[in-house]
UniProtKB/TrEMBL annotation:
SUPFAM superfamilies: ATPase domain of HSP90 chaperone/DNA topoisomerase II/histidine kinase. Residues 23-136 form the Histidine kinase/HSP90-like ATPase domain. InterPro entries: Anti-sigma-factor_SerPK (IPR050267), HATPase_C_sf (IPR036890), HATPase_dom (IPR003594). GO terms for molecular function: ATP binding. Keywords: ATP-binding, Kinase, Nucleotide-binding, Serine/threonine-protein kinase, Transferase. It comes from Streptomyces rugosispiralis. It holds the Pfam family HATPase_c_2. This is ATP-binding protein.
Length: 153
């Protein structure tokens, strides 16, 4: 069930909001919505920023599906001239945390360090009935998840 659609309003000219069922296909739907949103941004974010946004959306929604225990999660992606903000809400009050990555690929542990390394800021907010994890990605000056100095014009 996808209960909301991408919307652009005067109060929030560059945002997409969606409520997703916590099912395995939720991450794919979130990536599709985010990709469409990014394609519509003017000016477009640089490729490193767009890649980072897609990875963060995928990771946060996947974690909500796997770990929240709730039936639904929410996705909000918004943009301003300098950054793209991703916020994923879910029913769990347990915040993400660093843990030893499982190199065998069975239990994960790579996502939160990856998100923290790509984002200029991350926050976890308690909400009624759960939490929202927010990550901010710079629209320019990121290559392969690392901040870079702007190139001279």
């Amino acid at each position: 069930m996808h209960t909301a659609t991408a919307r652009r309003t005067a109060a929030s000219p560059s945002a997409v909001r969606e409520t997703l069922e916590c099912r395995p296909e939720a991450a794919a739907h979130a990536r599709h919505l985010t990709s469409t949103f990014l394609e519509g941004l003017r000016p477009a974010p640089d490729q490193g920023a767009a890649d980072a946004v897609m990875l963060v959306v995928s990771e946060l929604v996947t974690n909500a599906v796997r770990h929240s225990g709730g039936r639904f999660c929410s996705l909000r992606v918004s943009a301003d001239p300098d950054a793209i903000t991703i916020a994923v809400g879910d029913a769990s009050r347990v915040p993400p945390h660093r843990r030893t990555p499982d190199v065998r690929g069975e239990t994960g542990g790579f996502g939160w360090p990856m998100i923290s390394g790509m984002a200029t800021a991350t926050t976890v907010s308690e909400e009624p009935g759960g939490k929202t994890v927010t990550a901010v990605i710079a629209r320019r000056g990121r290559v392969s998840g690392r901040a870079t100095a702007p190139t001279p014009s």
